[in-house]
Design brief:
With 365 residues, the chain is α/β, with parallel strands linked by helices. It has helices at 2-18, 22-36, 40-62, 67-91, 111-129, 139-157, 159-166, 175-180, 182-220, 224-228, 272-285, 307-314, 322-329; strands at 244-246, 252-254, 262-267, 295-299, 318-320, 339-343, 349-353.
Length: 365
């Protein structure tokens, strides 16, 4: 998120700087003319194309599903810019950097501008390799990412000033200003260091928050509440998916091992309705022909957390807990807890519901 925000802000700043006023537009066209060596007509068209491409990057980044296209366009643009600068340096062209509009003291193109673009390419690559978090964006995470991106984007826009502070060098346009403004430069140095530290701290916090959010999503997806979203209960006629698990008493159980009509119940000790439905399920299980071998209870909880629920259910059913329970539930969608199924020997659902009362009555065994 932070990398994508940074790319968007940098390209926005570039477009705004070039189109800020008439002088900015004229300075950019002049810079393009020197770099390209073309006549005025084609140069103006090329300048328009460059600005349009730059403007397209943040627009595409804001469009859902167009992030990859935006990053590819940003990468291609930066590669072209870097190649043009490198060509100008080899030829000794005395062009100035109007990347973000004309500066009060224009800086000639140098190798550091190539380094800047390479660093931006690294940011683009990071944004492409790290997929955005699934689901809605958390406002707090977005705020942290945007703040960090604004800080770094400001440093990129003022790259020449920062470079002059860190690596002071005399050149015709800037030498006297650097000498007369030494105190201002010292203050700017401190400000740059402080902002850099703040960015690193914010970026570290952002990564920690994103890691925690992903861990929370993974845990949430395995809880009853997580299964409530986007998971439908199998209806009569549907077939249970293949599964294999080991019960708490060490027995192997799978769909292929089903023999005759089987009662399956999905529960969780963290679910109050599950606890309330337990006596009803146990009573129904006692009516199953074949007894305990024809009843399977899936308890979504860690083995050491199933507790009393596992003990009560084990009297009338084979019980699966822990990760095995989660794997079984991947083939037995449970839109809410509890969920009960009555399936035949082929794994085809005969009846399903939220409680045993939703199932047909059976003759007592």
């Amino acid at each position: 998120m932070a990398a994508r925000c940074l790319i968007a802000f940098v390209f926005l700043a570039s477009v705004a700087g070039k189109l800020r006023n008439r002088a900015s537009r004229g300075g950019f066209v002049s810079s393009v003319r020197v770099l390209a060596g073309w006549p005025t007509g084609p140069v103006r068209l090329l300048a328009v194309v460059v600005v349009a491409v730059e403007a397209a990057v943040p627009i595409l980044l804001a469009v859902p599903g167009a992030g990859t296209a935006a990053l590819v366009l940003a990468a291609v643009t930066l590669v072209v810019f870097t190649a043009v600068i490198a060509r100008a340096l080899r030829r000794g062209t005395t062009a100035t950097c109007n990347c973000f509009g004309p500066a009060p003291a224009p800086a000639p193109l140098r190798r550091r501008h190539v380094v800047r673009n390479v660093l931006l390419l690294a940011v683009v690559a990071t944004a492409a390799l790290v997929p955005p978090a699934s689901g809605p964006v958390h406002p707090g995470g977005f705020a942290v990412a945007a703040l960090a991106a604004v800080v770094v984007a400001a440093l990129v826009v003022r790259f020449d000033d920062v470079a002059d502070v860190v690596f002071p060098a005399q050149h015709p346009h800037r030498g006297s200003q650097l000498e007369s403004g030494s105190k201002s430069m010292e203050f700017l140095t401190v400000a740059v260091v402080v902002l850099t530290v703040l960015f690193l701290v914010n970026f570290g916090l952002l990564l920690a928050v994103l890691r925690r959010l992903r861990e929370h999503e993974q845990v949430h997806a395995k809880t009853p509440a997580g299964r409530l979203a986007g998971r439908g209960r199998l209806e009569p006629g549907a077939r249970v998916g293949d599964f294999e698990a080991v019960t708490t008493d060490g027995q192997s159980v799978s769909r292929k091992q089903l023999r005759g009509r089987t009662l399956i119940g999905c529960f969780s000790p963290e679910c109050p309705p599950c606890v309330q439905a337990m006596p009803e399920f146990i009573a129904y299980a006692r009516t199953m022909p074949g007894g305990r071998d024809q009843v399977l209870a899936v308890v979504l909880a860690k083995p050491d957390a199933a507790g009393d629920m596992e003990r009560e259910l084990s009297e009338v059913a084979r019980v699966v807990t822990g990760m095995a329970a989660s794997e079984v539930l991947d083939t037995l969608p449970a839109e809410a807890m509890p969920t009960v199924y009555l399936v035949d020997q082929h794994g085809t659902v005969e009846a399903s519901g939220g409680r045993p009362v939703d199932l047909p009555l059976l003759a007592s065994a």
